[in-house]
Design goal:
- The chain is of the alpha/beta class.
- It folds into two domains: 6-36 and 167-246, Rossmann fold; 40-162, Rossmann fold (3-Layer(aba) Sandwich), CATH 3.40.50.
- The protein contains nine helices and eleven strands.
- It has a six-stranded mixed sheet with strand order 3-8-7-4-5-6, with helices on both faces. A five-stranded parallel sheet has the order 2-1-9-10-11, with helices on both faces.
- Helix 1 (19-27) packs parallel to helix 9 (233-246) and helix 7 runs parallel beside helix 8.
- The longest helix has 14 residues, at 233-246.
- The radius of gyration is 21 Å and the shape is elongated.
Length: 247
C-alpha cells in the first residue's frame, strides 16, 4: 500500500488549535475536512404531533450544545418564552457555559456535572421538578434507561436528527485515508458513493460503534481509536504512519 499523504476527515474544519494541523505539519500530510452528515431540526408540525407541552416543564436536561440550540429553536417556533425560573441541568461545564448564547447566565439555576450519572444525583435533589430532556433521534438509549431507574418526572423530546449530507461536490473519495467519527458517516459514504471500493484506501474510525459500522459495510477498519496507547484520533493516525514507515 502507498504511504499516507492525503487524508479526508469527515467533520467540519476545526479551529487553528486542532491537533490535526500539527499532525499535517509534522508528517507532511495534506488533510482536508468535509462533514459527511448534518443535523436537522424537527419541524414545528412534528413537534406538535409529539403532544409535548413546553409550558409544563420546570427544568431542562442538556447532554450537548446541539441540544441547547435546538431546544431554544423549538421554543421560538412554538412562541414559548422560557421563564426566568427555568432550571438547567447540563452534562459538562462546557455545555453549561454554552447556555450564555441563549440566556443571562445565572449559576443558581444552572447545574452541571462531568458525567450523566453524576448529573442524576443533582437532579435527585430537585425531585419536584418536571424535566424535559431534548435529544437527537439517534440518541444513546442508556440516557433514558438511567432516567427510568429514578423516580424523576421527565419527558423525552426528540428535537433534531442526524442525516446524510449531499456530497456531490466531492467528485470522488480518492484519498489515502478516510477518517470517521460516527456510524452515520459510514452510512453517508455508502449513500453518496454506492460503488465505493476501498482497495488501498485506509479507514480510521473513532469508537467501537463506528468501527462496527465500517465492518458491517464490508469495509476494512485500519486505524482504531481510542486505544490505550492512542487516546485520540490524531495520535492513532500518527502511530499508524510511524509503524508504516518502520515496516
Amino acid at each position: 500500500m502507498n504511504r499516507i499523504k492525503t487524508i479526508l476527515v469527515s467533520q467540519p474544519e476545526p479551529d487553528s488549535k486542532s491537533p490535526y494541523y500539527e499532525l499535517a505539519k509534522k508528517n507532511d500530510l495534506k488533510i482536508e475536512f468535509r462533514p459527511f452528515i448534518k443535523v436537522e431540526p424537527v419541524s414545528a408540525k412534528e413537534f406538535r404531533q409529539s403532544r409535548i407541552s413546553l409550558q409544563e416543564h420546570t427544568a431542562v436536561v442538556f447532554t450537548s450544545r446541539t441540544a441547547i440550540d435546538h431546544y431554544f429553536d423549538v421554543c421560538s417556533k412554538m412562541r414559548f418564552t422560557v421563564p426566568d425560573t427555568m432550571k438547567y441541568f447540563c452534562v459538562s461545564e462546557t455545555t453549561a457555559f454554552y447556555l450564555q448564547k441563549h440566556i443571562v447566565y445565572r449559576k443558581r439555576k444552572i447545574f452541571h456535572a462531568p458525567k450523566f450519572p453524576d448529573l442524576l444525583k443533582d437532579m435527585g435533589r430537585h425531585k419536584n421538578e418536571k424535566f424535559l430532556v431534548p435529544l437527537s433521534e439517534q440518541h444513546k438509549p442508556d440516557i433514558i434507561a438511567q432516567l427510568k431507574k429514578t423516580k424523576l418526572d421527565f419527558t423525552k423530546a426528540i428535537l433534531y436528527r442526524t442525516v446524510c449530507d449531499d456530497l456531490s461536490d466531492l467528485t470522488d473519495v480518492n484519498y489515502d485515508m478516510l477518517v470517521f467519527y460516527s456510524p452515520s458517516g459510514i452510512k453517508s459514504l455508502k449513500q453518496n458513493f454506492p460503488d465505493f471500493q476501498q482497495n488501498g484506501i485506509r479507514i480510521a474510525s473513532f469508537g467501537p460503534a463506528t468501527c462496527k459500522a465500517v465492518e458491517d459495510a464490508g469495509l476494512r477498519c485500519d486505524v482504531k481509536a481510542p486505544m490505550p496507547e492512542a487516546p485520540s484520533m490524531t495520535m492513532a493516525i500518527e502511530q499508524f504512519i510511524k509503524n508504516q514507515s518502520e515496516a
